[in-house]
Amino acid sequence: MRLSADQMILWQYGFIKINGTIAFTWGLMAVLAVGSKRITRHLSTDLQRSRWQNLLEIIVTGIMQQIEDVGLRSPEIYLGFLGTLFLFVASASICTIIPGYEPPTGSLSTTAALALCVFVVVPFFGIKAQGLGGYLRSYAEPTIIMLPFNIISELSRTLALAVRLFGNMMSGTMILAILLTITPFIFPIAMSALGLLTGMVQAYIFSILAGVYIAAATRGHNTRGPKAKPIPAVQP
């Protein structure tokens, strides 16, 4: 029994390998990129809008409200990163209904890459909001004694993000695989539906935690975060 798609070798030349995790990850990214392009190519700024655009605006508005509730005062700045995180993890779970597909988030290499993205983006937004000096001073708050503990906290929470997502996603896949070998198909179908729900919850938790970490990095001298570019008014 495969523990993850890492063990599915699709192509190899010497030490260069393309495994299932790489193939499924890039395939999912291609689907998301093409899908987003097709969905947004006919957007209108007129008063008359399609039902799909209204639905898309409701979803985007909901995500921005969640980002603002975390403590980020300019959610449109962080929408691209946090929204992409949510869509990737959620889509990886939804695609499990496709026969032969194994979610890349069930591999520790993928979840570690997602956690490293958060690890890099947090200081990026922190420095953008507070400046380099202000962000570095936050590691020594409230006293210089806390400096090593704050650094350890940065590393440990990145590891926790990767391991939490990996454990939850892999466990659902493993349970479903075991049930398929010992029970009829009806019960695993119910477990698949539960797995989809679990995947959506994990996508939400991962994105919210990333938002919380960014909000913590942008606090201090500039509690409102960097200013967003003004959105031009739409002429009717």
Structure overview:
The chain is mainly α and 236 residues long. It has one domain (5-37, 50-217). It is 67% helix and 4% strand. The protein has 6 helices and 2 strands. The protein has helices at 20-40, 51-70, 75-94, 108-137, 147-182, 186-217; strands at residues 9-13, 16-19. Strands 1-2 form a two-stranded antiparallel sheet. It is globular. The model is unreliable at 221-236 (pLDDT under 50).
Write the layout of secondary structure elements.
Blueprint: E1 9-13, E2 16-19, H1 20-40, H2 51-70, H3 75-94, H4 108-137, H5 147-182, H6 186-217
Antiparallel strand pairs: 1-2
Oligomer: single chain
How much strand content do the residues show?
under 5%
What are the secondary-structure elements, in order, as H or E?
A: EEHHHHHH
Number of helices: 6
Summarize this, please?
The protein is mainly alpha-helical and 236 residues long.
